[in-house]
Amino acid sequence: MSRTLEGQTLFISGASRGIGLAIAVRAARDGANVALIAKTAEPHPKLEGTVYTAAEEIERAGGQALPIVGDIRDDASVADAVARTVEKFGGIDICVNNASAINLSGTEAMDMKRYDLMQSINTRGTYVVSKACVPHLKRSANAHVLTLSPPISLQPRWLGGHIAYTIAKYGMSLCTLGMAEEFKGEGIAFNALWPKTLVATAAVQNLLGGDAAMAKSRKPEIVADAAYAILTRDSRQYTGNLALVEDVLAEEGVTDLSAYSYGGSDAELQADLFVD
């Protein structure tokens, strides 16, 4: 397989910033087309960037961008975004399920609106976006669906502390495993990707510990480089994996990860959730 995304079209959810944007920019460096659906149309005091500033960054990197303001909880919004992508770029080769919501509250403290939000964005959103892209992915020579979700572990510590969030993230991973099996005959790869350490994103800054947590994180580019490695593999040979970022990079011969340290040192990195 050609190890480039030149001329490929990516449909990415939640790519206004962070990991989603890093994946988009890495693809754009090859000359890829990127359609991004996200809710952030106007600047937010706690969230850097909008769907439009992300599109500008993608185009500066060498790609073509289609910014779409939409909500993956809305089936019609997703269908419209996919149709607009196909109309502009002629098809879809890659779907990236990056949009996600997080709330680590325990059962008694969990507001059911927050529970429903996580389920509708994480598991249901992944299902809806993947479903909408599949008819177009079937026509791609090397079709991939990549979901940012963790390996599944039934250890009680991942279930007891924040069961609502765990259900929502594991649901994304179950979509990956189930659809990999369902569509393997069509040549569409379904894989998931998850980092071993925290990654410096708005969620880490705003919800998981602020500057102290950011200093113990790696840059989003580490996920983008691992995603790129997966998305340039043969879709008929690499599918049904719940992969860890660092393992994917090691398979590519990249073992020195010091350049990805957000805080400048690997010494104090903090493990991400769901990683033993």
What does it look like?
The protein has 276 residues and is an alpha/beta fold. It has a single domain (9-260), classed as NAD(P)-binding Rossmann-like Domain (Rossmann fold, 3-Layer(aba) Sandwich), CATH 3.40.50.720. It has helices spanning 18-28, 51-60, 75-89, 112-137, 156-160, 163-182, 202-207, 210-214, 221-231, 245-251; strands at 9-13, 33-38, 64-69, 94-97, 144-148, 189-194, 241-244. It has a seven-stranded parallel sheet with strand order 3-2-1-4-5-6-7, with helices on both faces. Strand 2 (33-38), helix 2 (51-60) and strand 3 (64-69) form a beta-alpha-beta unit. The model has no long low-confidence stretch (mean pLDDT 94).
CATH architecture term: 3-Layer(aba) Sandwich
SSE succession = EHEHEHEHEHHEHHHEH
Distance between the termini: 33 Å
**Please, how many helices?**
10
CATH superfamily: NAD(P)-binding Rossmann-like Domain
Helix vs. strand class: alpha/beta
CATH topology: Rossmann fold
